Amino acid sequence: MLKRHFREFSVLGVLLSVLALLGVFAPDFFAPQPLLSRLTAAAPKLVVACGIAMVMISRQIDISVGSLFAVCSVVCGLLAAAKMPVPLAIASAIAAGAIGGALNGVLVAGLRLPSIVVTLATMVTLREGLRLARQGVFIDLPDGLQWIGLPMIGGQYLVCGIALTVLAAMAAVMRHLAIGRAVYAVGSDAEAARLAGIRPRLITFVVFVLMGALTGLAAVMNVVQSPQVDPNTGRMLELEAIAAAVVGGVAVSGGRGNLGGVLVGFLLLACITPALTYIGVKPYWDKAIQGAVILLAVVADGLRNRKNGR
Amino acid sequence: MFRSFALFLCVGLALLTGCSRSGPDTGAAPSGGAPAGKRLTIAFMPKSKGNGYFVSCKQGADQAAKDLGAELIFDGPVSPDPAKQNEIIENWITLGVDVIAVACENKDGISTALKRAKDKGIKIVTFDSDAEPATRDFFVNQATPEGIGNALMDEAARLCGGTGEFAIITASLTAQNMIEWQKFIEARRMAKHPGMKMVALRPCDDLKDKAQAEATTLLGAYPHLKLLMNICSPAVPGAAEAVKQAGKAGKVKVIGLGLPNENRRYLKDGTTDTVILWKTVDLGYLTVQAAAALAKGELKAGATSFKGGKLGEFRIVGDNILLGEPFKFTKENIDQFDF
Question: Looking at this predicted complex, what is its ipTM?
Answer without folding.
Answer: 0.94
